[in-house]
Design goal:
Layout lengths: L17 H23 L7 H4 L1 E8 L5 H10 L5 E6 L4 E6 L9 H12 L5 E9 L1 H29 L2 H25 L5 H31 L6 H33 L1 H37 L1
Antiparallel strand pairs: 1-3, 1-4, 2-3
Helix pairs in contact: 1-6, 3-4, 5-6, 5-7, 6-7, 6-9, 7-8, 7-9, 8-9
Amino acid sequence: MEFREILKNTNLDFIGIRNKTFAISAVLLCLGLVAFVMISFGKANMSIDFTGGTSLQIKFADVVSIGDLRDALTDGGLRDVQIQEVSGTGEFLVKTKMTDTEKEKVQDIVGQVISTKLTGKKYEILGSNMVGSSVGKTLKKNAIIAVVISLIGIIIYIAWRFTYVFGLAAAIATFHDVIVMLGIFWALGEEMNILFITALLTIAGYSLTDTVVVFDRIRENMAKMKSKSDLGAVINVSINEVLSRTIVTSLTVLLVLAALLVLGGKVLFEFSLALVIGVIIGTYSSIFVASPLVFLLRNKVR
């Protein structure tokens, strides 16, 4: 059986253009840091998972699609809502950033909108739960802790498998991916929810796997070379050797995510978009950030 490669015998100088790619990454990181500051001040599109709000469980006796319910609530003035359908039950979980006041309850407002916009559809609000802002703060704190623990774990794992320099480079590259994703998502104005945090950690793992493949090839080629002085040439050869595999893997993953992005509906849109952005950034960093960082750090510690 013959295997075909998309890219054959490439000879690109990745180390030679490292200053240009580092400049691009610096701009993206600045955007990410701005996003981090804005999120800290509550100036981002955060879901009720982080800001607090009200969660309602609604059951319809008639057939109602999630699209019809979303259109009805949006037309009724409820724009900050998340809707999840419980398959096969006619039930929906509706989350909104609104909270009960002394004058009116969120449950009553949603009920009035449904009665007005979905005339004739029989429904029942099974329950209503308030999500306090303290819960959101706890979730934000736990999300940051999860990312920090992941980065520490990456350093330890890569340092054990390779060397401390490789571990530090991999951790910086992974941190780069997380911050850049945060910045782009904030700039696009997309909502950040628990699924977005899931996507961040998923991409951190994907990017790390891609980086380890390149690091493995660098280690193999370092063992083969007689002179250990030309590390830049070894890294260039190593990245070029795995470039076809990296591109094909990323394109395959992106094809699946593109289908999910287009056909997954509103519920999965932010999650799918985060993964698409993450795969692109992760592929970029494994080629243009992680390995050039190894070159830079090795020269610094000599």
